Amino acid sequence: MTVLLLAGFVGPLLLVTIFAFMPAQSFSVLQTPTLANFEEILATSYYISFLSSVWLAALTVLILFVICYPVAYAMVRVFGHRGSILAVLITAPLFVAENLRLLGWVLFLVKGGVVSGSLETFLGIQVDSMLYTSAATLFGLVYVYLPFMLFPMTLGISMVPMQMREAAFDLGASRWQVLKEVDIPLAMPGILIGALMTFILAAGAISEAKILGGTAVVMIAQDIQKEFTFAQNWPKGSALSVLMILLAGGLALTLLKRIDLDGIFGRR
Prior knowledge:
single chain; mainly alpha
């Protein structure tokens, strides 16, 4: 197990980190280490890609929280055992490749496609293509990563004791007060895990921006891919990757300090 962990996770991560300190355009790790790649990244416009990725990822988390909380609440409190049917329906698209699902949405959003064609045919409303915009990229992120927010949130809501909610109602609390003072705080571990997973995945996403967003938004993952492929500059691609890993790792460590994992997994 340890060997597999070293070979599959630590090894590539260590190699990327070492490459980040190699001279530009080099393909060997036996060069003299340098900070030139990081200095060049900080001096150029790569910060736009970082900010775009972080901004879209944060918006994705916020939108998914608004969408998923009522759905997760219904799955736990309303549907009961029948909630598993809804879970299967939500999980089913995951058995289809992400790129294929996104290409399917191209047929809906393109000019003359399902959405604009239907509006023009039935309502006489002419709508231009909805593809290749920031909104299309955001839509793709929300669509793809919905299960990663929903299921941890469902787990968090299921951990809220019914007796505590009933006690709050007995003491005269309104539904809004129970939601604010009992439901959301006690479900917060699941919410934070879902938010963390969604943010990290969305910030490193590439397919949504390339297929639905075109060149409207350049995500940091697209810059990393460009450096590793077209530019053949592995050290700069590695330096961008290291900065992204530090951002995601810092966020993860900060949030994990606030999550009681032992309580979630019933170890105490």
